Each structure stands twice: as C-alpha cells, then as structure tokens.
Amino acid sequence: MSVSTAAGRMEAWSFPPRIDASYIPPNDQRYWHPVRETMPPDERDAAIAVRLREVMRHAYKSSAFYKKKWDDAGIDPESIRSLEDFERVPVVTKAELRASQAAHEPYGDYLCVPESEIHHIHGTSGTTGKPTAFAIGRNDWQTIGENHARILWGMGFRPGDTIFFGAIFSLYLGSWGAMSGAERMKARSFPFGAGAQGMTARAAQWLAMVKPAGFYGTPSYALRLAEVAREEGYDPRAFGLRTLFFSGEPGASIPSVRDRIENEFGARVIDTGTMAEMTPFMSAAGSAESHEGMLLWQDMVYHEVCDPATYARVPYGEQGTPVYTHLERTSQPMIRLLSNDLTHWVMEENPCGRTYPRLPKGVHGRIDDMFQIRGENVYPSEIDNVCNAIAGYGGEHRIHISRAQTMDELLVRAEYDATVAAGGDAAIAAFRRTLGDQLRKVLGVGANVEPVPPNTYERTDFKARRVVDDRDLYGQVYQSTHPH
Ligand code: 8LQ
C-alpha cells in the first residue's frame, strides 16, 4: 500500500492537524480513532516518515533555531524520506533550549508561530536555575486536548465520568494538559490541585463526597494522600475510584509501588508521561486492557528509543534513551528532543489491540540518577521496588551514596511501620535483615540498611527526590586535601 493511501486512510491525520471538535466515538467503541490506533505498524511508519518531513519543513522555515542547527549539520528537511534518514537529524538537548531562551527571551528562537497565537504559557517547575518557558499555540492547545482525550478514552474514561486532578495547577503542565483531554471528551473535571497547606486532608474530604471515577497526580502524592486520608478517618477504597493515572516520575510502572497504590484505593493504576516540552505528554500511556507499562502512541508523538552514545534507534527488546518528536505541534515543536531517561521497548501484540510499541516497564529513571556500586548499575526505582514489597515498610526511604576510599557505598535508610515499631528491637532487626537480603538479591550488591521510625521523612505533593548523593561532597573534600 502506498504511503499516501495509508495516510489517507488515517482519520483526519494531517500536518497541521485538522480537528473535528464535535467528534466523540460511541461509548462502547474501544478506540477513538480505530484506523490510526490499529493499523499495521509498517503502514503507520511510512505515514510517520511523511509527517516528519512536514514537521521539519515547518520548523525549518519558521525558526532560526532549527534552521541553524540543521544547516550546521548539513541536513535538509526534504532529504528525510525514511525513519532511518531521520536518525541522522541531531538531537535537541534541554541545554540548547535554555540557551535559545536566554538569547531570545522569553520563548526562544524555536517558537514557530507568531507570539499573538500563544494561548498558554507554562514553565519548568524546578526551583533552581533559570526556568524554561513553554509557549503553546491556540491550535496546539486544541490538538493537545484531542490527543489526551484519545488516550483517556483508551484508559476507559467516558463522557460524564468525573476526574479529580490532584496535582499542582500553575506552571506544571501536567495538570493542565491532562485536564484538557478530560474537557475535550466531555468528562467532568475537578481541578482540585495540590501543594497548598492542609490541601491533602481536604482532598480526602472531597474525594469521599464526590466519588470520582478517575484521579490524576504523581504516584508519590497518591501514597501520601492515602496516608493522610486514613489519618483523617477515611478509607481510600470508599472513594470509589476506578482508575488512577499518573505522570511525572517512575512509580506507576514499579510493580510493588503500583500494587501498593492499587491496594490502597481498590482501583487500577495506569502510567503515562514523557516530558513537559513534549505536551501532549501522555503520548506514552497505558490503556484499559494494556495497563502495564506504556504504549507509544506513535501517530501523535514519534518516540524513538536510542543508543545514548549515537542516538540511533536500538532494536526492540533493548535498552536506550527516549528521543521524542512532535507530529502535531506547530508552536514549539520538539524534533528529536533528548530525554536522558532510560527505558526498554518491545513490539508485541497488545491486549488492547493497538499496534503501538510498548515500554513494558515504563521509564526506569534518569540516566543521571543511575549509579554504580561495585560495578553494578543501580537505579533508584529498583530500590523503591524492593522497599515497597517488604512487609513492615513505613512508606518512605532515602538512598545515600557516598564514597568510602575509592569505592561507592550504598546506604538505604527506610522507615518501618507502626506494626514493626510495636514489635520492638527484635521486629526492627528482622525488618533490617529482610530488607538487606532483598536488596542484595535484586541489586546484586550489598547495601547498608538503617531502619528509621515511621514518618521520619517528609512526604511530597509532587515528585519524590529520594537520592542523597554525597560523592560530590567527598570529591570536594578530597580535592581540598589533595591539592595538585
Ligand atoms: N517522568 C515523567 N513521567 C514519567 C513516568 N511516567 N515514568 C518515569 N519517569 C517519568 C508533565 C508530565 O508529568 C511529564 C513531566 O513530568 O514532565 P517534566 O516535569 O518535564 O519532567 C520530565 C521527566 O520526568 C522525564 O524526563 C522523566 O525523568 C520523568
């Protein structure tokens, strides 16, 4: 089948996108866009190759950033005829975006629409350094709503369902982006938010009253909410939630964390999320029937999993770093944005029938967060998985990496729960032993374990930061005591 026929068969798929804002599938239809979601992958790939060229053409003619970048690399958008050709396009780093915004305040020279078309401004939520601004065009906001509606539909949401947004509503694109999809599909949105003092207890009160079908937030916050709800006398299972969907950090695809959340709420957990720059960031997301890991909805954002050294795609089954390309954004289109995260991808039959590749274990974490202990690569998310699977775990922990002599050392400080506390020294020693044994088994190296009492560590309304890296401190001390 020729590319144009394949593309022609895809529901309203063009660049820039043309959206029928009145379209909503019948409730019993599994797919929002049956053709786009279930077509043979090679036909979709052929259509994606056409779309990539169109997006590149748009970016090349409307942004100095891309023009210079590609001219310097000797890349002509017209020469990109296949997915293999596309792998020659240099990746975009977040540092380049920051530099572009510093030189061309506030949106950078990769804003590819006139400023008058900007509909929403958001930004990075980091508290250190200069923020990055996200400018989203009016048409793009509509497309984002459309894309997220498709994905929420795939998760099993339908018009009239209430979805509770328990995440920060300000700079953070997560809450707004997810809600745009709920609004588009005529669900009932409850933009409750998060982050203000006393808000978690009130969230429990409202959830008990409104009994929504869906909850959106971060996995860390859902666990905190369950704790606070119990303290306030609510049973989180009585909220009647059907599905909690999460973005922002690993967790929803960490088996023991997912199980803990599912047990707390008596509801299904679905993982989603790429990067704020990539909004529609839910383009990687689980579906109702394929709820483990994340499907890569390739026709809205083209996801490549690449070798972190060469940025060429790795074969299915292998590990690499996600590189993302917008196929339906015109305002600040990201073309080969490097995530620096780590994942592995597969191409298998999905229980939901969608023909997308999948990240069976979600995104494992950031490459920077990975550390080496005696030659073994260790991810914080593996430690999270072990802790959450241990009976008597109190809900939070910290991972300390330090350097003793020339070797890195790992110390896990983990809270035990009230039951262990009531058991006294013997129970605490048993908890320490079990956790130590499990860590050695899973990580392949020994870790020091220090049990700490319940509620030692602060909980978060947003993304957890559990790694305390003392090696820099060691480095500074080392350098000051070993002058050149
Ligand atoms: N990150 C985001 N989602 C993740 C997931 N599901 N699993 C593992 N790591 C994940 C607005 C959305 O929540 C996306 C988002 O959080 O965007 P940010 O704030 O730009 O942060 C992006 C980073 O969060 C990713 O690179 C992952 O490291 C992590």
From TrEMBL:
Listed InterPro entries: AMP-bd_C_sf, AMP-dep_Lig_C, ANL_N_sf
Superkingdom to which the source organism belongs: Bacteria
Coiled-coil spans in chain: none
Annotated ranges, domain AMP-dependent ligase C-terminal: 375-471
Pfam families per record: AMP-binding_C_2
Originating species: Vulcanimicrobium alpinum
Name the record gives this protein: Coenzyme F390 synthetase
